[in-house]
Amino acid sequence: MNCKKCKREIPEKSIFCPWCGKRQTPATHSNKRANGMGSVYKLNGRKSKPWAASVTVGKERIFLGTYATETEAKRAVESAQINGVSTKNTYTLETLYAEWSDVHFRDLSASGEQGYKTAWKYLQPIAKMKVRELRTTHFQDCIDECAQQFSRAQCEKIRQLASQLCKKAMEYDLINKNYAQFLSLPKEQTKERAIFTKQEISLLKQHDSDERARIILTLIYTGFRPNELFSVTLDNVNLTKGYIIGGSKTEAGMNRKVPIHPSIQPYIENWYAKGTSVAKVVSLNRFLIVNQRGGKIDLKNFRSRQFYPLLLELDILELPKGQKAFSKENPPRLTPYCTRHTFASLASAAGIKPEILQEIMGHEDYSTTVNYYEHFEIDELQKEFDKLKA
Fold first, then answer.
1. What is the pLDDT averaged over residues 315-323?
2. How many domains in the chain?
3. What is the mean predicted confidence (pLDDT) over 193-204?
4. How much is the average pLDDT of 328-352?
5. According to the 3-state scheme, what is the secondary structure of the chain?
6. Whether residue 152 sits in one domain with residue 112
7. What is the pLDDT of residues 215-254, one digit of tens each?
8. Predicted confidence band at 371 (pLDDT cuts at 50, 70, 90)?
9. CA 320, CA 1: separation in Å to the nearest integer?
10. Whether residues 44 and 122 fall in one domain
11. Sign of CA dihedral 341, 343, 349, 351
């Protein structure tokens, strides 16, 4: 035979020409691996780590992860064949959640942690499934179930948790995409938020010898969320300058200064006097408003044993005919959280500047103009707050 390039005569079936070195037969390349040796394949449309690898253990195909180059993917397969597959490949969703929450909850507030714990309850139907087998449809079923009873906000929390868990799974190379990004949420239904009327506020003031009425009025004139007020300690109260430090939930809402309105000044002074007289013996961290045992007021107990009973006694609320309690089917017109909306309405009607109101209430959603304001001194807050009539 003759060389393809130099045309000299060379031995039959030569792979290379001994004279010029030209290869005589085409090189063969194949990504196909022998049976049982795993698979390496390229993911279409993926720019970052486009190469994927998997192996078969018994009758089960196990995804190993995604890689920047084909070589890295092949090495992963070879490593799995030699050293075995990582135990993380057998992780169930509840195992992954336990590892994720153990780290993630360290930097969360109590309310933030509880939000994820509540969302986790809705993922229980898929908790025992292996993470690498989970897809968008599995998470979607959980959200759809939640949407039948609860609001879009709760569904959003489930999607947020699912996204966090998918990211953790991608970190472990259990899946190659965040399946939570494809989840659909129910349409948001805007509800008219009820507020206390001026007549109802006046009625509460007429009965402010009742501790329950004083607490409700304090919520109305501070804009605090109920749990925020119940978390205020004696150290958070500055009677000299006339403000309370409190708040939670978001960075903007934490440790904010809220002026003490004249309507509730006597209540705050009374609680403070009682608390400091006991605090000298008990603890300087005593709460401003306490339950009968001297501890923090539980919101659930306040709602069922104080808030609703008082409003029913004053005929501000009334039970549906034939019922002894409110229900999801027949909810009350007012809830403890309505005190916060009442405060916002009163403040807005009084002409308090939006940026001042957002500072007091601890909202993060500042408008473009408000973003120029970084901090407000208590004197400025107090000046605006005085516009709110007693």
1. 89
2. 3
3. 91
4. 86
5. CECCCCCCECCCCCCECCCCCCECCCCCCCCCCCCCCCEEEECCCCCCCCEEEEEEECCEEEEEEEECCHHHHHHHHHHHHHHCCCHHHHCEHHHHHHHHHHHHHHHCCHHHHHHHHHHHHCCHHHCCCEHHHCCHHHHHHHHHHHHCCCCHHHHHHHHHHHHHHHHHHHHCCCCCCCHHHHCCCCCCCCCCCCCCCHHHHHHHHHCCCCHHHHHHHHHHHHCCCHHHHHCCEHHHEECCCCEEEECCCCCCCCCEEEECCCCCHHHHHHHHHHHHHHHCCCCCCCECCECCCCCECCHHHHHHHHHHHHHHHCCCCCCCCCCCCCCCCCCCCCCCCHHHHHHHHHHHHCCCCHHHHHHHHCCCCCCCCHHHCCCCCHHHHHHHHCCCCC
6. yes
7. 999 999 998 989 999 999 998 999 999 999 987 644 444 6
8. very low
9. 103
10. no
11. negative
pLDDT tens digits for range 166-175: 999 998 888 8
* Dihedral class, residue 255 (left if φ above 0, else alpha if ψ from -120 to 50, else beta): left
Please tell me the pTM assigned to this model.
0.53
Q: Select from 182, 214, 248 the last residue of a domain.
A: 182
Q: Which of 125, 156, 182 is a domain's end point?
A: 182
| pLDDT value for 370 | 35
Say if 358 falls within a structural domain: yes
Domain span at residue 63 reads 39-85
Q: Which residue has the tokens 């659909």?
A: 184
Residue 353's contacts (CB-CB under 8 Å, 6 or more residues apart) are 384
Q: How confident is the model at residue 16 (pLDDT cuts 50, 70, 90)?
A: confident
User: For residue range 58-80, what is the model confidence (pLDDT) as tens digits?
Assistant: 677 777 777 888 888 888 888 77
